[in-house]
Amino acid sequence: MSALERFIVAFEPKNEGKVSFRILLDEVINEIKAKADANSEPILMRDYFAAKAMQADITNYEDNSKFGPDFWSTENIAKRAYNMADAMIKAREE
Q: What's the structural domain count of the chain?
C-alpha cells in the first residue's frame, strides 16, 4: 500500500486516533518527491539561466520590424537565451 493510500485509509472513522496524520503526510510528500526526482533530469545552471533570459526577452517583446522579420522567431529567442546564459556562466568564472 502506498503512502497516499495509507493516508486516505487513516481518515476512515474506524481508524480515528490510531495513526499520526503528520507522519503519514510526510510519507506521502516524500513518496511524491522521490517519484518526481526519479522521472526528471536535473536542471543545469545553463538551462536555468537560459530560461530566465528567455523570460526577460519575451517580456520585452516589441511588435515591430526594426529588428528584422525573424528576430522574434522561437528559434532566435532560444538562441539569444542560450547566448545570454553562456555569457552569465562566463562572467561567473571571472
A: 2
Rounded Cα–Cα distance for residues 47 and 58 (Å): 16
Separation of alpha carbons 56 and 52, rounded Å? 6
Angstrom distance (rounded) from CA 10 to CA 43: 36
What is the Cα–Cα distance from 82 to 54, expressed in whole angstroms?
A: 8
24-60 pLDDT tens trace: 667 767 777 777 666 667 678 888 899 999 888 887 7
By CB atoms closer than 10 A (0-12, 13-18, 19+), residue 4 is middle
Burial string for 43-56 (b: 16+ CB within 10 Å, else e) reads eeeeeebbeebbee
Instruction: Provide the domain limits for residue 84.
Output: 45-93
d(CA 52, CA 50): 5
